[in-house]
Design goal:
The chain has 219 residues and is an alpha+beta fold. The protein is built from 8 helices and 11 strands. Helix 5 crosses helix 8 and helix 6 crosses helix 7. The longest helix is centred in the middle third of the chain and has 27 residues.
Length: 219
């Protein structure tokens, strides 16, 4: 799989613009657990995932994490190049959740081409709008959804991503995704286990009743 086939507006760029991207493009292989972007002061560049999985999260002053979005094959991250967005800065950390291969376009190269190319500029705005929509959805979840519903939603999402009902995941990891304390997640999981929706064992959460979890999530 080549970069050209993964970059949505490639065919709408001029030959010169395509050459500038390819001349400056860097491919990186990232190990699981590696932090590849850390806050607004770190201008990593635009990321395009070839394969793997990344997690973008924010960190509170108390050190608590909350996931704002995740990136999968062919997904693009602009916030890692937030220095090219002069009117906005984002203190977002990006970490590899799985071994990941990705391309990096330096921020200055992407910005210079975006200023010349209407298709790339429009595409960039669409990606930014989609990411902000995800952030606003997260805000709504945090403000209006109880923790049991948020845990149920997370477990269902994780099962869909991993394509299994037996999740190898710790309570601490779930808490980091949801921006809460491990003890809160443990209490919610024990409640779900008592209701027959999940089975807990060390480092594992097994989904037993997806229908009940879905009903809880959607109430």
């Amino acid at each position: 799989m080549e970069f050209q086939s993964c970059f949505p507006v490639w065919d709408r760029l001029s030959a010169d613009q395509q050459s500038r991207i390819l001349d400056n493009l860097v491919f990186r292989e990232i190990k699981k657990g590696t932090v590849i972007h850390n806050g607004s002061a770190d201008c990593t560049g635009l990321l395009l995932v070839k394969s793997g999985q990344l997690r973008a999260y924010i960190l509170s002053d108390e050190g608590r994490e909350i996931t704002i979005y995740r990136l999968f094959d062919r997904d693009i991250c602009l916030f890692s190049a937030s220095c090219m967005l002069r009117s906005a800065q984002f203190d977002i950390t990006i970490e590899a959740e799985k071994d990941t291969g990705l391309w990096v376009i330096p921020a200055e190269v992407y910005r210079s081409i975006m200023e010349q190319s209407a298709p790339l500029s429009n595409y960039t705005n669409e990606v930014m709008a989609a990411r902000f929509s995800e952030v606003m959805w997260l805000v709504e979840q945090v403000m209006w959804k109880s923790m049991d519903k948020r845990v149920a939603a997370f477990l269902l999402e994780e099962a869909a991503i991993e394509k299994t009902d037996r999740l190898s995941i710790t309570h601490e990891t779930i808490a980091n995704h949801l921006g809460t304390h491990r003890e809160v997640v443990t209490r919610m999981l024990r409640y779900l286990q008592g209701e027959g929706m999940v089975r807990l064992s060390r480092g594992t959460v097994e989904l037993l009743d997806a229908k009940k979890l879905t009903a809880l999530r959607d109430t």
